[in-house]
Amino acid sequence: MTKEYGRLMLDIEGKSISEEDKNVISSNHVGGIIFFSRNFESFEQIKNLINEIKVIKEDIIFAVDHEGGRVQRFDSEFTKIPSMQEISNFARKNNNSSIFKDIGWLASSELIAAGIDINFAPVLDVNKNNSTVIGDRSFSNKKIEVFDYASNYIDGMHEAGMKSTGKHFPGHGAVLEDSHIELPVDSRGLYELYIEDIFPYKELGKKLDAVMCAHILYPKIDNKIPSFSERWLKDILRDDIDYKGLVFSDDLTMSGAGDDLCCKKVEKSLKAGCDMVLICNDRYGAKEAIDFMENSDFEASDKIAFLKSNKKLGWHDIEISSRAKEIKRTIKEIGDMHEKNSNRT
User: Fold this and answer.
1) Residues 323, 329, 335, 339: what is their CA dihedral angle, to the nearest 10 degrees?
2) I need a labelling partner for 83 at 20 to 30 A (CA). Which of 26, 65, 215, 301 fits?
3) What's the rounded Cα separation, in Å, for the pair 125 and 84?
4) Residue among 153, 158, 118 nearest 139 (CA)
5) Average pLDDT over every residue of 131-151
6) Is the pTM of the predicted complex or chain greater than 0.90?
7) 265 to 2, 330, 344: CA distances (angstroms)
């Protein structure tokens, strides 16, 4: 029998759980925890924290943003992954897109060894060189390269035993504004989005396990951002693209998600077609969302269980792996090449 998971993914404040955390996590509506840098001290500490949470609730998924470059929450013993743009420059020069499969495998393996189920990756945004928040998080400014490199990265994730999450649907690479602090507006029409930003989602639709929405307004398509829009999630993503995987909202406390109460944003997201919603850095809003769910018709989901990693990996086994050692040597080579090119400019 498939287990059902709550549809809220929340955060915790520190490196261990408080009594308030325990009360929140125990809610039937909380099905996921996302970790940030403030939650991390070492491999053993994060593994122990996860085990501590599992004592409270076994049916819960653990997530982190561990893209590499500017967005990597765990450091210390974890391999420092270059930005996707740095790896792309190396892959292009050496005609070696399979390096992404190796790096996807290594990053995922280390996270799984610690008890993490989901790395919110890969970034599928096609970088138009004007985004303040995407930039070198993107594989490329060419849609074919984004598709190719991301496909290899996902293959590595799957080989390690981790599901993939493409973000930020339908595309965050063409707007200047950072949706954490304001609502970006993209004035392009649907056809232009289809032939550029949506292309990787269409091509990877059967391979992607989950998609995370962008907090961007596309006024020529709908007057709602994707997380709140049946037009985006049901008509376009589900029907036109024929996507079958799960859908995450991005963090609903971001400014791009608007000023409504958290409970209202949760309601709009779930009605629009999100399977799981994120509420981060707002414990009051998280509690408000839990209270709302208690009195709503939204039920737990058995689809979310699909994201749980069942692979068992030991940290020592990864450390002594000849493949891991070779990938780390290549990562050093990527870093050296990037530093050399930076010095030239």
Assistant:
1) -160
2) 215
3) 11
4) 153
5) 92
6) yes
7) 28, 44, 47
Kindly give the pairing relationship between strand 276-279 and strand 246-251. Answer: parallel
Q: At what angle do helices 99-114 and 322-344 cross, to 10 degrees?
A: 120
Element (H, E) at 92: helix 84-94
Sign of CA dihedral 262, 264, 270, 274: negative
Check: CB of residue 38 under 8 Å from CB of residue 65: no
Pairing of strands 165-169, 30-35: unpaired
Delineate the domains of the chain, giving CATH numbers in brackets: 8-344 (3.20.20.300)
What is the average per-residue pLDDT within 150-172? 97
Determine how β-strand 165-169 pairs with β-strand 118-119.
unpaired
**In angstroms, what CA-CA distances link 65 with 73, 76, 119, 183, 283?**
6, 16, 6, 21, 20
* Chain centroid to CA 60: 16
Angle between helix axes 84-94 and 99-114 (nearest 10 degrees) is: 150
Task: Tokens for 307, please give them.
Answer: 């994201």
Active site positions, annotated: 180, 250
d(CA 154, CA 158): 6
Q: 1 or 13, which is more confident?
A: 13
The number of helix segments (H) and strand segments (E) in the chain equals: 12, 10
